[in-house]
Every structure is written in C-alpha cells, then in structure tokens.
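Recap quiz, item 2
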Amino acid sequence: MSANKIHELLGDKAEYYLGHKCMTIDKSSIHVPSPNHLDDVWTQSNRNVQTLRSLNTIMNNGRLAGSGYVSILPVDQGIEHSGGASFAPNPIYFNPENIVKLAIEGGCNAVASTYGVLGSVARKYAHKIPFIVKVNHNEFISYPNKFDQIMFGTIKDAWNMGAVAVGATIYYG
Amino acid sequence: MEVAKAFEYAHELGMATVLWCYLRNSGFKKDGIDYHASADLTGQANHLGVTIQADIIKQKLPTNNGGYNAINFGKTSKLVYDKLTTDHPIDLCRYQVANCYMGRVGLINSGGESKGATDMAEAVMTAVVNKRAGGMGLISGRKAFQKPMNQGVELLNAIQDVYMDNSVTIA
C-alpha cells in the first residue's frame, strides 16, 4: 500500500493524523521502536537470555521482521464473545489451522490464540510462526455473566507446545 | 496476582509475556460517556501491567480522557491534562506509551470490532496513531478474521504497510 493510499484512507483527516506534532511528551524522551530495541532496551533488563531469544523470534518474523514493529493476529474472542459470535461471519475459523494460516499468509510476526487452538496444531506450526498462547479468559456462558478471568491452560504446557510467549488478560478497575 | 505469578514462571522458562491490559467496571461510564478507553485510566492500567513485567502491552486506542475526574475516584494530577495530553489521539496514545516506561515496554493497540466496509480505514488510522505516538504495532483480530481470508490478508498487510512506510513518522 502506497503513501497515497494511506492518505486516501484517512480522507479529510489525513493532515490531522499525518501532520500532527506531539508537543506534550517529546519523542526524544521515549524509546521509539527500532531494529535495535532488544539491544538498546531489553539487554539492560532482568529478562533472561531465553526470554530475549523469544522476543527476538517475534521481532524477526513476518513482513515487519527486523523493523522493530510487530503485527500480531489475536484470535481468542471465541471464549468471551462465543464461538458463534466470533466465527459466524467466516466459519472456516472454527478450524484452528485456518487461524494460523491467516497469520502466516497475512505476514504477521506472531499468532496469539488459546491453549486449545494452538495446541491442536502445534506440532505442524509452532516452528513456522511464533505462538503466543493466551492462558486465561473470561467466559460468558455463566449466567448471569460475570467478569472473572480464569486459567484455561498452564504456562508449562504453553512452553511444551513450543510457544515463544504467553498472553493473559487483566481487567483493572 | 495469578497473572503476575504466571508471567514470572513464563519468564523463568524463557517465554515473553504479553498482557491484554484492559479496564472493566460498570462504574466507568458517566453521563453517557464510556471511560474504558480513557487515556488517563488506560495509561494507569499500562503502568500496572508493566509493573508485573509484561514485555508487550496490548491496550485499546484511547478514545477520550479525564476518566479519573469524571468518575471522581483515584488520584491523578492536573498536569496530566494540562501538559501531558491534549485532545489529539496521537497525544493521548503518547501518554499510553509514556506509561509503558517511556516505550521500554512496547505498546500495541488493539484493532477492535469488525464493522465491514470501514475496517480498512479504521485499521490504517489506528496503525498511524500507534506508530506516530511511539507504539510498537497493532494486534488486530476481528477485523482480519470476520471476512474472507484474502480480505483478511489484505487488511493485515495494509496495517504492516503503515509501519514500513518511512513517510509515517514519529510525531
């Protein structure tokens, strides 16, 4: 997609979005994503070497590989919003393999989905695209609905299926 | 607490941690305005999320500001609204980035629901705001999978093109 197309999609707000200069917190005071983000920022941290490798794996896959930016496909809405609400518009995604295929063909850095979804195709795909295993969810089949994140998988099993990252939800407030 | 422990164990095993860092409280609506994506409240959620050592924070793009004052709870500073933010979505998102340890922890914004025809324009706008604010990317699900696969690929690629385009700068 060309810069012209971006302008076109932003319509009459193109200048509002593309021309704005932030005068609140200057860009010089933030760590802007870059190809060196891992070396510049994370190597100063307490994250262990394996975790740095995992982050590096995510940063270096897909069309944005090596840019410092990530594009991730998340498909875990089936638990909270229901499988029907999520997949009725395109039922092929009841099949986990199609979720992973969309992430690969879409050039994503990683695919984020449930313990069940990613586990069902792990042997075939965990080495082809980084897995982010989402371990907790809020299910909405309890009546009345309640806001409560419960664990659907374990961290160790996420690791065992070849995941490079785990994801979890917290509802603050 | 459960998530903090899970993240600690994931890190021990060498896995990165991604936090879906959301707000949910029926009291966060006031006078018909929903503050669940308010810059000050989501900023604080980010600040809590990075504290439990999330490596990537997933947050909604801010839609407004002033949640603390509207709902009249918690603690904030007048300076947050006078100096650190404006009404511009990029400035509001910059405040979210600031609350991820000034960008040490990557901020990825979520894509939101699929509405059909406007998905492409909305996704590109979200990517432009996130990138120009100093965010690390986009995590877009429903806009990508609630349509034919080829159109989903097209949408994901359009998002990526924003990040690959050098003319979309940091604001």
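Residues 1-110 of chain B form one domain.
Residues 50 and 73 of chain B are 22 Å apart (CA to CA).
End of item.
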